[in-house]
Every structure is written in C-alpha cells, then in structure tokens.
Amino acid sequence: MSLRFQVETTTGSGGRRAQLELPHGVVQTPVFMPVGTAATVKAVPQNVVEEINAEIILANTYHLYLRPGHELIARSGGVHRFMSWQRPMLTDSGGFQVFSLAKLRKISADGVEFRSHLDGSKHFFSPEHSMAVQIALGADIMMVFDECVETPASWERTRDSMALTHAWAQRSKDYWLAHRDEVPWTHPLARDVVMGYDAARFAGKHQALFGIVQGGMYPDLRRESAERLVEMDLPGYAIGGLAVGEPREVTREMIALALEVLPKDKPRYVMGVGYPDEIEEYARMGVDMMDCVLPTRAGRHGLLFIREDPNDRASAVLRLNIKKQDNAEDERPIDEGCACMVCQRYTRAYLRHLFACGEPLGATLNSIHNLAFYMETMQRVRGDLATATR
Ligand SMILES: [Zn+2]
Predict the structure, then answer these.
(1) 220 is catalytic
(2) CA 318–ligand 1 middle distance (angstroms)
(3) Cα separation of 85 and 56, whole Å?
(4) pTM above 0.85, yes or no
(5) How many angstroms does the Cα of residue 368 sit away from the middle of ligand 1?
(6) Are residues 312 and 266 in the same domain?
(7) Which domain holds residue 378?
(8) Same domain as 331, residue 283
(9) For this structure, is 146 an active site residue?
(10) Among 85, 211, 254, 314, which is 20 to 30 Å from 152 by CA?
C-alpha cells in the first residue's frame, strides 16, 4: 500500500471532498500544499507550519540534490527526519527546475545534462536518476521525471516533448517498481524515539508515484497525454506545464480537459497554482491537490492576501501592500476576519515597520498569514463540498 484515496462527496461541477491516506498521515482534500523548496517552508518553522494545519508539504528534488545532496539526506534517515517533519510530503521530479533554473541544458532521449545554477557544476538527470534521488529523500509521493516545454511552443515541438515525457514516465514507473523498498523510513536514524517513530506504521508501505499530464496549450495533446498516462495505471496524476504565462481561461480549459480523462477514483494534482481565488475555483472543478510558492514569496515581498469584507470569508480576495505609508499607524490586524496567530497579535503598523527595517521577522509573519489565508480558503471549500449533494 502506498496510497489510499477515498472520495466522500462529489458535486455536480465535479468538485470532491476526499481523504488521501499516505504513510505519514491522512490528508483532507482538496488540499493546498505549502512549498518547502530546500526542506523548509521559507521563513516559517515546522511547528508553525503544523499549527496552521498544513497536512502535506512539498520539497524540491533539484534543490536538495544540489544541496545538501540526496545521499546525505538518506544517511540522516530521509527528508522527514532531516527536517523534523512527520506529516506527509511530496517531492517533485526536478524536471521543472532543471528546465527553468539550470544552465546549458542538453536534452537527449536518455535524460538531461545541465549545469547547476549555484556553481556551474555539471550534472545529469535521467528518469531513473530522478527516481533514485526521490527514493533517497523518501517523501510519501514522488513525481515522474518530465520535460517541461517552453511557452509558447509549436504544436509539433509540444507533441515531441510530450512523447518524451510519456517515455520517461514509463521508465520512472519501472524504476519505482524495482526499487521502492529502498525508501529510508526504516533507517536506524528514522527510529528516533524523540520523533515519535512507530515502525508498525510503515510496515509494507511504499512511496506513491504520480504521472504528469503535459501537452502545452493544445487540447488534443492534453487529452492524449492524459489518456496515455491513465494506461500506465499510476497511483495519482498531476497536470503540469500550466500557470506559465498563459491566460487564465486557457489554464482552466486545459485543467477541465485533463479532469475529463483522469480517473475519478484517484487523486488529481495541478502543479504550481495559484492565487487564492484560482485554487478555490480549481478545487470546485475537481482538483484535489495544488501547490504554489505564491503565499510565501508574496509574503516576503510584503504582499498580503485579505478579504474585501473581513466578515464574509467568501468575499473577493484583495492584496494589501504592507510597505505603503498609509499602514504606518494602522492599528488593525492584516485581516480583521482572519483567525491566524499573526492577525491575533500584531498590527499593520508593526508589520510595516518590520518590513521597512528589513527585519527577518517581517518575512516570517507575512508568510504565516498568507499561508493561513490559503489554508482557511481550502477549509471553507472542503466544508462546502462536504455538504453538497450529488
Ligand atoms: Zn492572518
């Protein structure tokens, strides 16, 4: 068993309330996953990530492979123990970062040669190597290695890239099936008593592998990609290559197309989205999982999400720029209707002061509020979906 997905209710528009059971715990879906790029949700300590009710977080394979190295993390008992996070985790395949961050890429059918964005050192990622790195990290969910086509790309270019992605997905699956017992969950260090390790919890359990639907902005390719991946019978499916600059109605169309084809009894994950109103919209369409750096990145830049009417948590989302002079003596919290620990304690005036001084606490508090805002949004959506009748 690597994953169990139980749908409780489904609405007329396809949105579903479900539970995703993973080796490190149960996740209530639809869920937003905070991004912990380098085994840290930037500027936010793990106990706070728990307190805002994040049930699953994401880590980036490319970054952890370069620093501190997946072998070091495996020697320390896996990424859960390394970063002291005992709830579920997901790692991406490294593909997106190889194609967006790394320099001088050379792509062949076998894999991608690239230079590190940190020091220019040369590396090679293949589907098998991505799997080996992700198994060493030991997240509950791994992603197949895929090629992320540039945007915009021609139909022919997108089709060829998609074909490569499908071949790599099959190779990722083959490697996963052959090596999934190598996950470091039973490593002696992972048995740390302080961490509340329970050996029985991991008996017979494996990491799950998700496929990634590509196909650019072409409906026929998107559909074909989804169909090909479904044939591979993987535990879950992601929709990748979206929110890369295309108009929002195109994103929505590509998601809807993929959702039509992907199985209703497996989790469906849209990678790298989005604004609070977007994640709400996609969840109501039937997307179960999403992740984005936006809440933490915006927070570090002093951009805070609030509701237009603080007493109506379903009202429009606005952005408060904490840097602005008009916040200098504003005694209100960021969002008067927000129950987060930041809004319970600090004023806009104080947060503006922290930002103006470049105090690290400002980045931390802003990130916590934004993450809590996303969590609250998804909790409200889950409540709506749970009470919906079929
Ligand atoms: Zn708040």
Answers:
(1) no
(2) 13
(3) 10
(4) yes
(5) 7
(6) no
(7) 300-386
(8) no
(9) no
(10) 211
